[in-house]
Amino acid sequence: MVTTHTRTHRILCAAMAGALALLATGCSDDPDGKPADVSVTANKLCGGGVVTKDAAKAIELITGETRFMASGRSSTVADAAEELTREAITSANESGDICRIYPYAPVDELRMRWVLRSNAPTGTPDPKFTRLPMGERAGAAHDTAYVTFACGHNQPDYISAWAEATGRPTEPEGDERPLKNAYITLAHSFALALAKELNCEDSAGLKPKPSLIPAS
């Protein structure tokens, strides 16, 4: 038998679900008001179908978590590609977010972003990065990584996908390679997804899996 209290609780929760889905403070079928589980697994983040199996494992390694706050509806590679295309028409040097990943861990969040440039990367890379043979240039550190690829023919644009921790991530103790590999795997996953969404020829030469052996 459904009591008045239970029925009222369900009505209120249904009304609030759209605006407060991420907060989920007491809106569940449980009349005691226990929070509903609105978290998602890593492969469902950023629009779904973007985070590869390896990238999902990388997110879990970086954060130490397996559940995350669901991404916003506009926090997708498709939205980022649309914004990037608009910006490329008027300016050759822009940047923007792809999505942000919110775990319940010491890492405040993981930020996935894009950077658009009109020229190929030149100069000496920051020594904090280990160079990796992907795209035009790729590098990995213990708290960030990027993959830059060219998209276009006669005058291509150069797009970088970045994966980075915000806040003050803990310095790793011992071998940094697992974290570096995790960040570059994540950056590669989003670079590949962007290249496909932008219809770059041959996915901008990016292979299905990241190359983790440092460039010579």
Explain this structure to me?
With 216 residues, the chain is of the alpha+beta class. 27% of the residues lie in helices and 20% in strands. The protein contains four helices and eight strands. The chain has helices at 4-16, 53-63, 77-90, 177-197; strands at 39-40, 68-69, 94-101, 110-117, 130-131, 137-140, 144-151, 157-165. It has a six-stranded antiparallel sheet, with helices on one face. Strand 5 and strand 6 (137-140) form a beta hairpin. Helix 2 (53-63) packs across helix 4 (177-197).
Brief description of this entry?
By secondary structure, this protein is an alpha+beta fold. The chain has helices at about 5-15, 55-65, 75-90, 175-195; strands at about 40, 70, 95-100, 110-115, 130, 135-140, 145-150, 155-165.
**Overall morphology:** globular
Instruction: Round the Cα radius of gyration to an integer and report it.
Output: 20 Å
Largest sheet: 6 strands, antiparallel
Give the helix proportion (percent range).
25-40%
The main sheet orders its strands as 3-4-8-7-6-5
Give the averaged pLDDT, no decimals. Answer: 81
Distance between the terminal alpha carbons, to the nearest Å?
A: 71 Å
Secondary structure tally: strands:
8
Tell me the number of helical segments per DSSP (H or I, 4 or more residues long).
4
Q: What structural class do helix, strand and pairing data support?
A: alpha+beta
In the predicted model, the low-confidence regions spanning at least 5 consecutive residues are 1-35
The H/E string reads HEHEHEEEEEEH
Multimer state: single chain
Beta-strand proportion: 15-25%
